[in-house]
Structure formats: C-alpha cells, structure tokens
Design a protein that fits this description.
A five-stranded parallel beta sheet has the order 2-1-3-4-5, sandwiched between helices. A five-stranded parallel beta sheet has the order 7-10-13-6-14. It is elongated, with a radius of gyration of 29 Å. It has 19 helices and 16 strands. It has four domains: 4-133, Rossmann fold; 148-310, Rossmann fold, CATH 3.40.50; 315-389, Orthogonal Bundle (Helicase, Ruva Protein, domain 3); 403-453, Arc Repressor Mutant, subunit A (Orthogonal Bundle), CATH 1.10.10.60. It is of the alpha/beta class. 33% of the residues are buried.
Length: 455
Amino acid sequence: MPGRVLVVEDEREMRAMLEKGLTRRGFTPVAMPSADEALAKLAAEDFDVVLTDLRMPGMDGLALCERIALNRPDIPVVVVTAFGSLETAVAAIRAGAYDFVTKPIDVDALVLVLERAVQHRALREEVRRLRQELGRRDDGGALVGESLAMKQAYALIDRVADLDSTVLITGESGTGKEVAARAVHTRGRRKDGPFVALNCAAMPEALLESELFGHAKGAFTDAKAARTGLFVQAHGGTLFLDEVGELPLTLQPKLLRALQERVVRPVGGDTEVPFDARIVAATNRDLELAVEEGRFREDLYYRLNVIGIELPPLRARGNDVLALSQRFIEQFAARTGKRVEGLSPAAAQRLLGYGWPGNVRELQNCIERAVALTSFEQLTVDDLPERVRNYSQPKAVPENTDPSELVTLEELERRYIHRVLEAVGGSRTLAARVLGVDRKTLYRKLERDDEAKKP
C-alpha cells in the first residue's frame, strides 16, 4: 500500500531521515521545509498522504492541517509532535488530522500509520468513484457492478434482449437471477408487455401444473371457474421460470411440449391455447449433473439453455460489493428518511473482506440492517452484523513449517478441489471450469476420494 507522501519538516536532518526511511520502505516521499511551500506543492501535484511536523516557524502543523482539510479533504494528514499529550491529540484531530505520531519517531510504527492513511484515502476514492458511476447508470438499479464478469453479463443481456430465444440464467442463490431476467425483459422489444414470474419450487406439483397451464371449470374439486395459466397471461411479454431445476419430472414433458409447440392445454380442457411469450428460466442447480443423474430431461435442458447467462457469486466480483452497497444505502436511506450517505473506509474494508455466502441478497439485508441501526451519516464497522465484523479470510494452504504437518500432493489436491466446490456453491460444472479440467476428470477425482473414505 505504499504511496506518495508529502513530508513537511523544517529541520534538515529530520527531513533527510524521513525521506531515507520512507524510501527504503517503498514510499515516494517529497520533502518541503515549510507549510507555505507544502501548500504550493500540493496545489501542483497529487499526494496520497501528508506527514507534517506540528511546531514549525510561520504556519504550524495544525494550521496546515486545517488548510488541507478545507481545500483537499480527500488527502489524509498525519501530524508529528514532540508533545504527546491528550490535548495535542485532540487539537490535531479537530484540525482535521487523520492521525498523529510522537517524537522520537519509530519509522516502522510511522509506516503502519501511513499505510492505513493511504488505504483510507484509496477506499474513500473508490466509494466516490462508484457513487458517480451509479449516478451515470440509468437502469433503475437493476444491474450494478463494474467487474469483468458482470460487464460480460451486461453485454450478453444487451445482445439477446430483442431476441425471442429462450434464456437460462445460472448462478448461486442470491446472485440476482430475477434481476437479470427483468433486465432481459425491460431492455427488449417486449418491455411494454407483462413480466410474469413463477418460482417452480414454491408450490406442490398439482398446483404448479394448473398455475402454468391454467385449468377448465370443474377440472378438479375447487375449480369453480376456468383459469388462465401463466403462459397465456405472459402473452406479448416474458414468462420467468425461477428455480426451474426443481420442476417435477412428471411436468417436464408438458413444459417441453409447450416450448416446442407454443401452445398449452389447460388442466381438464380439451382445446389447446396458443401463447406468444418469451421464456426466461433460472436455476442455482447444476442442470448438466441433474441430466446425468436422471433428475432433469436432457431435451428440456437444451430447449431451455438456448442462450446461457451465468452470474458470478458476489465474492468473485471485487469492488462491486461497494457499488452495490452504495446503491442499497441510497435506497434504504430514502425509504427510512435517514441521512446516510455512504460507508466509512473501515466498514468498506470489512465488506470487501467478507465471503458473502448469501451473495447480493445477504449484502442487501446487511445494508438494510446497518442503515436502520446507524446514528451517523456513514455506516461504521459497528453497524455491520457480527459475522461481517469478525470475518477472517481462510488461508487456502496453512502456513506450517513443521514437516510432520505437511501433506502429500494428492491430499493437497483433494483439499483444493473441495475448497473450489465450496466456493462455487457445489456446482461441479463451475468447479471444473475453475480447476481447468473437464467434468469427467473432476468426477473421477471425486469418486476416487469417496472410495478412499470407505472402510
């Protein structure tokens, strides 16, 4: 995290010592002998942090700190003082200082303070940039993020939006599959038609068939009137079948025929009804594996997966976490009437470091809770749930120097395969892609592991 440091120190020997010490530790120091010269330098060049002595002829460190806080509030200031009293610390912080250190200077301790200051500025800049980016996007908050994987998803959605081809959206639970489905609908020529959504895992089989295809009057005990199914209700628009991997095997042939023939027969009816709706399906299951295991029809899988859109897990999207957080902060602040404008750098760091097993949905719940609880204009670490505050990133390989605790390459491979499977939510297709092997090779390795566990 080294960066450019503007050093303000009137004593020549101290300037030289700081320049040498910081340079050896990877920083790029530029030293000025007075506050006035430092301000002129700051007006001409950019720096990541300012390190200034407190007691100097002319303008002192506190006055310099106040000037920088007024004109360049994005640059953190660290004050050096020989008077390490509480009053001095309070005066420095009130003047806008990020932190302070006392003389005699321990360069290693100073480096830690400067690194935190540089990181503080970098996170603030990233939040500011993402806030501006959100302001430029005009998609109603449907899709947020600048990671490569999400840019590829946006581009694919834009390319297929005006088509009528069936789309299959895959991804872990909570990655925003319905949001992506709505984006396919609203960006296409069917946007003025209805968007009809159904969760295939949310109702029993008998009701699911009636919900999809409709039913005739008297088709069953409670069918006191005829009912139009969702295929027909979505005429002219889009039918979104969420969790399509949970569709019962007995209903899969009927869905396949509806997709092929573009007609449905209501339950208990004797006539077929045509429909004109685009089908978008989504699943968090590995449908290829379900096909191999006989739980999903192969012909239906290929009929659904004409165009595949894969949404990455949130942990693989880098700084998208901050962009999404900012969007959720704005939404929940407006809803609650609270003046919450963003994240503190420390809170942003915690959000970036957390694994997000529940993906975007978990992040949304986290931010909603934090906005409700906070007493400040920025969310702080204390506003975050305990699991996020105290999260510790697991190491892929333990750092052991004891030879007796080292493992074989075969065991290391086994552990890594299971770590990748965990990271991709158990999807063997995605795991094989991450590992750089074909699915059959991965299955062979997993079967070998299962055989080794048998007594």
